[in-house]
Predict the structure.
Amino acid sequence: MSPTADDEVEQTRLRETIKAYAGGLREGRGLAQGFQKQTDDVLTWAIGLIGAGLLALRSFTTAACPASPRQHALLGGVCVVGTLLAVAVE
């Protein structure tokens, strides 16, 4: 049984579809990698800035207004919750 013209047309269409699908997968992978890098960078900055806020918390609140240890713990807790949310959302 020899292939007919219709079979050859179908095979050509199938090859083109497979090539287009593979090209789309390659393009999508590049976009996904770029998005992941941006997400990682944002998360790193968020954790770094919140950590710096935790380190400066005591001296900042003492200079701005006298705060009790309970108030320091409350303000620090807000920073810790912010860090946890940043990690959870990522």
About this structure: The mean pLDDT is 83. The CA atoms of residues 7 and 13 lie 10 Å apart.
